[in-house]
Amino acid sequence: MSFEAVIGIECHVELKTQTKMFCGCRNVFGGSPNTNVCPVCLGLPGALPFPNRLAIEHMIRAGLAFGSEIPAFSKFDRKNYFYPDMPKNYQISQYDMPLTQGGSVTFWMLDGTQRTCRLERIHLEEDTGKSTHAGSADGRIAGSSYSLVDFNRAGVPLMECVSKPDLHSAAEAVAYLEALKRTFVALGISDVKMEEGSLRCDANVSIRPVGESELGTKTEIKNMNSFRSVHRAIESEILRQTGIVTSGGRVFQETRGWDEAAGVTHLMRSKEKAHDYRYFPDPDLTPIEFPPDEVKRLRDRLGALPQARLDRYVVHDKLSIVQAHQLVDTPGLAEFYDASVAISERPQATINFLLGDLSRLANDRGVPVERSGVRPETLSELVALTESETINSKTAKELIERIWSDGGSPSAVVAAEGLAQVSDLGAIDAVIAGVLDANEKTVADYKAGKTKVMGFLVGQVMKASRGKANPTLVEQRLSEALKA
Ligand SMILES: [Zn+2]
């Protein structure tokens, strides 16, 4: 019997705001433990929360980007559970009336297929503090058994995106997460740094026989700290569950932690159900009413979304999936590409320059392409000069390096310095004749069957033409001259 994996992702994203969700403490990463706290985020008696408007706007923009419904009415609820890193012993979250509902995330797989994962909802909550357990890598006193807690992170606005179980492989789960991350970066609503915990995710994984429509029992996997871990953890969990089921056993609903070093998931606890949290509306916070004209204002300001860009690059411009992603994921490059292609109308030649020589220079010099001397118009000129075979690729490469530092117009440099490619057969033949005369021994070697010397002779002709001869024609005329 063969099995199909069914995966849903819960993705937590810390929102980028000046202050925390319900108080005036700064929303910054790090700092000395417990220095960025106040009575509200410490949950001291009598302190009252006050919602952060920008965080709510970020949430609604995220929902709009994924086509979610934005209900006119929403509220905050208390999610009750006891955990040492949560000072109030409840978390302000949203239960039955989240800020956004539904929507979907579309993304491209490397094999060129497009997938869609529906969203259940995106809701807003506050982040918890952070526990450090003694004996762990960063525990303070080895051998003792206690934990330290830092509340600097408590109360930071946290968005939770809950997907429907529409994903069927580790690769799809990672591509989905990358699509989320890309969109949040474009919207400017989060740093999405997994290493600093501003993007965290849990995966719900189950398996079922192929063809079965009912869902199997799922496990929730936690503690994955990179997209690579997400991939490995899901693959390992699918294998574990398949092993259990094929040997006649049964999968239990539980929360499992991912052990990066061992490459396996392990039991953390049996899974809580919603009623364990005893949700009820937070009496300290009034419900949120978000008028349609406000939603419209946010929708109008969404800007170019990465998914629409990717679709255009793949479907219209015929870029490869890898090229399209590289373009969209490098800040500033997609705008540069768009501006240049708008003039040249040559997507493939443009992307080759951008992801080739220009990206190499950007790396070498530590300066992004858009801050170099090369402008979108310059690039379109270069594309025109090479496509019309006015200059060869060697000259183009040299021009790019010069313009990177000095700026200027490639056509003007080509005209002023006579860099145009020589395609005149008479001129090429004359150079070839000179080279053959000067290399009698090599010519004799060639005629004796050492055809490898051809490369050397082509090089000599190119050199004699100061790099300007059309290399295709040189090769053609040279082999004809040698045969003669
Ligand atoms: Zn505070």
The outline comes out as elongated
Tally of DSSP β-strands: 16
Biggest pleated-sheet summary: 9 strands, mixed
Rg from Cα? 30 Å
Class per helix and strand makeup: alpha+beta
Helix content: 25-40%
List keywords for this structure.
484 residues; alpha+beta; 9-stranded mixed beta sheet; 3-stranded antiparallel beta sheet; elongated; binds zinc ion
Write up this protein.
The mean pLDDT is 92. The chain starts with a strand and ends with a helix. The protein has helices spanning 53-65, 170-187, 227-246, 292-300, 306-316, 321-329, 333-344, 347-365, 376-387, 393-406, 410-417, 425-438, 440-447, 454-464, 471-483; strands at residues 3-14, 73-74, 77-80, 90-93, 100-101, 104-108, 114-126, 130-133, 147-150, 157-163, 199-209, 219-224, 254-259, 264-270, 280-281, 288-289. The chain contains 15 helices and 16 strands. It is elongated. It has 484 residues and is of the alpha+beta class. Strands 1, 5, 6, 7, 10, 11, 12, 13 and 14 form a 9-stranded mixed beta sheet that branches. Strands 4-3-15 form a 3-stranded antiparallel beta sheet, with no helix packed on it. Strands 2-16 form a two-stranded antiparallel sheet. Bound molecules: zinc ion.
What does this entry show, briefly?
The protein is an alpha+beta fold and 484 residues long.
Any chance you could write out the topology, listing elements then pairs?
Blueprint: E1 3-14, H1 53-65, E2 73-74, E3 77-80, E4 90-93, E5 100-101, E6 104-108, E7 114-126, E8 130-133, E9 147-150, E10 157-163, H2 170-187, E11 199-209, E12 219-224, H3 227-246, E13 254-259, E14 264-270, E15 280-281, E16 288-289, H4 292-300, H5 306-316, H6 321-329, H7 333-344, H8 347-365, H9 376-387, H10 393-406, H11 410-417, H12 425-438, H13 440-447, H14 454-464, H15 471-483
Parallel strand pairs: 12-13
Antiparallel strand pairs: 1-10, 1-11, 2-16, 3-4, 3-15, 5-7, 6-7, 7-10, 8-9, 11-12, 13-14
Zinc ion is lined by residues 20, 23, 25, 37-38, 40-41, 155.
